[in-house]
Amino acid sequence: MPKALYSGLFLLLLSTGMPSYALTIEQAWNAAKSYDPNYQKALINEKVGEANIRSSRSQLLPELSLGASSNWYEHDKDSNGYNVTLNQVLWDSSKWSQLDASEASALESQLRSLQAHNDLAEKLITAYLELAKAQGDLRLAEQKLKEGTKMLNVIEQNFKAGKVMSTEFEDTRANQLDIEAALLARRSELEQKKAALAALINHFPQQIDEISTKNLTQPRMAVETEAEWLTMAKNNSPELLAAKQKLRSVEFKQEQAQSGYYPVVNGRVMYSDNDNARHNDLNASISVSLPLDLNGATRASVDLAKLDVLQAKQDVRLVEINIRELVQSRFNQIDLDWQRVEMAQKQIRSREKALENKQTVYKAGLANADDVITAHNNLFDSRNLLQSLLYQYWLHRVALFKSVGQLNDDTVKHISQALQS
């Protein structure tokens, strides 16, 4: 079965018959590869590069043509004839340079395809994790609303029993309205993130996996030092490798432009015959042409090609600078991110104890409702902060993996291990 048919069936199953359980990141990744137009175009450009190589190579191969003619004369004998002509380029520097440039461009297309794969993986993983975070934020908002409702009911009963003042009850009710407003905002954000992921996979997800905030352990890094990450980026970044390959391609095009100064040698062998000829005719010829560039067209082409080379060199430098900056910032940031995650865990434990104490003191009549409300809000702020920092940590890891060209199927599988339904 053709690959295109497999892709079509996969998308059809996604759009019509998705199961009720959560959509995994690996399922989303497979759907994105089949659906994303930019990635598909990059794969097509690989085939275009291969076709350009065949086209350039054909110009160096012999060219055979057959001809036939039938002539009618008013005062002479009619004639019929045919000929076979073989043309061969014996030397043409521009055609050899064109072949070299085509091969370099084809390799660049392959690297651009890897870059598109890397870029798509980052987009997909980022959209998936942002949706997972929004899903978790909504769940926390719903939990906060549920607990806030219980607290409001208790204070309302105390108010009716004359144990608390009306201001405490009104403050609690106002806080509950704030919680409900925040819940609506979370739902709105969740729908936006669903739409963003749907644009990548052609399916509107109902539920996806999330990163657990329980029993957290810092994942190991692929390599331990910044220098190792920089070396990995230098050797594997498809963006950097493609920029370097583009430089080689334009250098070959410069050679192609300079070949306009060199002679061109062509050979030809022709066999012909017709009704009126006494003998068959076989002839061979060699032609040499030497361009003089009287109008300066070749020199102008060479100058433009040299400028293209200079621009390509600067493109390589720009990519190197950006990758170095990204690796250095993300490498240092990731360690700090995890320290902040650990600190947020400690804050949550502290906030939980503070809320318990406030509730105990409130029940004893030694604190007012505002103290409990503040402790309750602080606890959920800390829980939201932990979740936010945890997803930020993974997004920074994804950016680091992208900078070194390692956003592949194995990386997606690695990230999926941190997710759960």
Walk me through this protein's architecture.
This protein is α+β, with helices and mostly antiparallel strands and 421 residues long. It has one domain (29-420): Outer membrane efflux proteins (OEP). The chain has helices at 3-16, 25-35, 37-58, 93-160, 166-201, 226-236, 238-258, 297-363, 369-403, 409-416; strands at 63-71, 79-91, 210-211, 264-274, 281-289, 419-420. Strands 1-2-4-5 form a 4-stranded antiparallel sheet, with no helix packed on it. The protein has a two-stranded antiparallel ribbon with strand order 3-6. A hairpin with a 7-residue loop joins strand 1 (63-71) and strand 2 (79-91). The longest helix is centred in the first third of the chain and has 68 residues, at 93-160. It is elongated.
User: Mind summarizing the main beta sheet?
Assistant: 4 strands, antiparallel
Total number of domains: 1
> Could you report the average pLDDT, rounded to the nearest whole number?
88
What order do the strands of the largest sheet run in, or round the barrel if closed?
1-2-4-5
Approximate strand percentage? 5-15%
CATH architecture, by name, is Up-down Bundle
